[in-house]
Amino acid sequence: MLNRQGRPSQPGEAAVAAHPTFTGNRALQQEEPLIFEIGRPETTGVDVDEPAPFEPRLGGLERTDGVGLPGLSEPEAMRHYVRLSQKNYGIDTGLFPLGSCTMKHNPRLNERMARLPGFADVHPLQPFSTVQGAFELMDTLAAWLLELTGMQAVAMSPKAGAHGELCGMMAIKAAIAAKGEAATRRVVLVPDSAHGTNPATAALIGFTVRPVPARPDGTVDPAAVQAAIGPDVAAIMLTNPNTCGLFERDVVEIARIVHEAGAYFYADGANFNAIVGKARPGDLGVDAMHINLHKTFSTPHGGGGPGSGPVVLSDRLAAFAPVPFVVRDGERFRLVEDEADAARQGARPFGRLTAFHGQMGMFVRAMAYMLSHGADGMKQASEDAVLNANYVRACLADLMSLPFGNRPCMHEVLFDDAWLKDTGVTTLDFAKAMIDEGYHPMTVYFPLVVHGAMLVEPTESESKASLDLFIATLRDLAMAVRRGDVERFTGAPYHAPRRRLDETRAARQPVLRWTPPEPIREAAE
């Protein structure tokens, strides 16, 4: 039996039921139990000598029984994790269309550079004399970031986007305190189209969040900012391009309104991949912006890391960047690690954000990406990312609804669920059906400014052939919806290692401990 592309189809539920296997495996799709089910706590793959007598120093909190970790032989451990890896979807598997995440290809050259011993083996407590190359790379990377953004200073220590937001907003808070306005400026303006971390960050450090509504075209109206601004406002947090995939065309006017009121302009830099080499945030009036090195400059994120979120600062905030930071003394580099030393450099840091400086591997990967692309290459990457998103938009606009009209977008295109109304198929159903077709779903139900959002960001990594197959797949799914083939969606995914899970229950009632099942008793003869 052939599928729509003329290739042999995958076995469906009926075929699987008709041809069960003893192991539960389906040829190369192998069923893999938990490591606790196949491991043996009483064994280990290494020999560990009994420790010499010692006096515990845990104040009576030392462990009194075994850890209970499963022991495996090396072949067992290798097979277990290789089989699990085959159940994962990643950017090396196929197109990863997560909107607002910029899951681009990670060039292997970057990985080769990050694994050079001088970078891979560096330790944060090494003497400065032994890490001059690492310092020089950080200084060079910082200079490139300042050139790309048109800003005055950069804090390299934040570990990821939300951490960078925290850094930028703490610098703003310190600047407000330095002006003696800490008691009066307690409000942060956050547009409805902002990333969810924006209001959370503002609230975390003691600000009150005041929302700014989006106008019908999905962008922020300067008049709405003017209506919300006042002497109590500390800053605005705005994403540009915004989370609807649209460039805020009135950003300069918004910055003017904010600055005239004595407030600061924080820009969320998660979507920087759309404008690198095309527009500099500093030229638009931005005072602080985090940059996701793990998005814009490759190394797709996920699974908790790795990440890096440097924060660029305008001349209004440059003095308040946190320690540590790199300075050049003649031909040598060193870290400024305390406020007294920073004061001698003319700085007024708000403090130390993190114990050590940052993710060295991320710095190396980002620098390798920048040097290999060059200024013209990074500009072309932004242009190609925008082109690819608009190609997806143009090819699907006749079947899937666009909440803000069929007009050019930036690096990502936003669909809503209006086209699914009264079909019996939801945004979640459509996303699950994409899994059966071999694609990771796009970002769904975000941003919240539209109902049933589907946010697609193809990035510049994808060729036209790759996009054509992705578009054809979504068109086929959309046509199936129109034909009323509801079962294809409501029961999906059919071909994944696990069927659809109750994700809400899993989030609210997570099972964090494996409990051995009760032994099965054989009936007496």
TrEMBL record:
One of its GO terms (cellular component) is glycine cleavage complex. Residues 43-67 are annotated as: Disordered. Residues 381-481 form the Glycine dehydrogenase C-terminal domain. One of its GO terms (molecular function) is glycine dehydrogenase (decarboxylating) activity. Residues 184-302 form the Aminotransferase class V domain. Its EC number is 1.4.4.2. The keyword Oxidoreductase applies. GO terms for biological process: glycine decarboxylation via glycine cleavage system. Transmembrane segments: none annotated. It catalyses: N(6)-[(R)-lipoyl]-L-lysyl-[glycine-cleavage complex H protein] + glycine + H(+) = N(6)-[(R)-S(8)-aminomethyldihydrolipoyl]-L-lysyl-[glycine-cleavage complex H protein] + CO2. It is an enzyme of class 1 (oxidoreductase). Pfam families: Aminotran_5 (PF00266), GcvP2_C (PF21478). Keywords: Oxidoreductase, Pyridoxal phosphate. The glycine cleavage system catalyzes the degradation of glycine. The P protein binds the alpha-amino group of glycine through its pyridoxal phosphate cofactor; CO(2) is released and the remaining methylamine moiety is then transferred to the lipoamide cofactor of the H protein. This is glycine dehydrogenase (aminomethyl-transferring). It comes from Alsobacter soli. The lineage of its organism: Bacteria, Pseudomonadati, Pseudomonadota, Alphaproteobacteria, Hyphomicrobiales.
